[in-house]
Design a protein that fits this description.
Blueprint (H helix, E strand, L loop, with lengths): L3 H14 L4 E5 L7 H12 L4 E5 L3 H7 L3 E5 L2 E5 L3 H8 L14 H9 L3 H47 L2 H4 L2 H36 L1
Parallel strand pairs: 1-2
Antiparallel strand pairs: 3-4
């Protein structure tokens, strides 16, 4: 049984394999983890058709939107630019605020007491990017360790097969060389597997 995130990723993958000329997307980043959102952003920036989407993910909107349509009190208003253009034209500081004049006195006070909503969005976007970068770095370490373990195991198998050959026993020097190398490989494998378990555990924390 697929989870909500897995269903979303599967649906998006099917769409992007053979994309239509028009895409309608409702909250496309819902249920997606950070790496999946990054992959979706990369795919959509290369999409040549028309994309119409609804989203509360400000980072996603900033990266993708080049036109904004505001719906307010039953009316539509088109802004022929990206999200920052919309903010500049309306004076809004967050999707929830809309145009100035709609904030209550208490909301203005709380905004003055701490970081502005715009600053908060920027910090959240930076945190997402930093987390994605850290995850990619951790994944690279895990991949490199898996490749090293595979190479060591392959070499271990080759030496074991050679050691089992009757002609190998006729060469005492070669037998000692093989046994010495097998001992080194066993130690290297133990260390590599220990590192892999640690790094894979850290990687799993990013995905939990």
């Amino acid at each position: 049984v697929l989870s909500g995130g897995e269903k979303s990723r599967l649906a998006l993958a099917k769409l992007l394999i053979d994309p239509p000329n028009l895409l309608l997307m409702d909250e496309p980043t819902t249920h997606l983890d950070i790496p999946s959102i990054d992959s979706l952003l990369e795919a959509l920036t290369q999409y040549s058709g028309t994309l119409i989407f609804i989203s509360h993910d400000v980072h996603f909107i900033r990266q993708i939107a080049n036109h904004v349509v505001e719906v307010r009190e039953g009316r539509l208003r088109h802004y022929p630019g990206g999200y920052q253009y919309y903010l500049d034209k309306t004076g809004a500081t967050s999707p929830a605020e809309g145009r100035p004049g709609y904030e209550s006195e208490s909301s203005n006070k709380s905004a003055n007491d701490g970081p502005s909503r715009k600053e908060q969005r920027r910090l959240e976007a930076e945190q997402r990017q930093a987390a994605a970068k850290a995850r990619r770095a951790r994944q690279k370490v895990v991949d490199e360790l898996e490749q090293r373990i595979h190479r060591l195991e392959q070499r271990q198998l080759e030496l074991t097969n050679e050691l089992e050959q009757p002609e190998t026993y006729a060469n005492g020097r070669r037998t000692r060389e093989i046994n010495d190398e097998l001992t080194e490989i066993a130690g290297a494998l133990e260390e590599a597997n220990r590192k892999w378990e640690r790094e894979a555990g850290s990687l799993a924390e990013f995905e939990s």
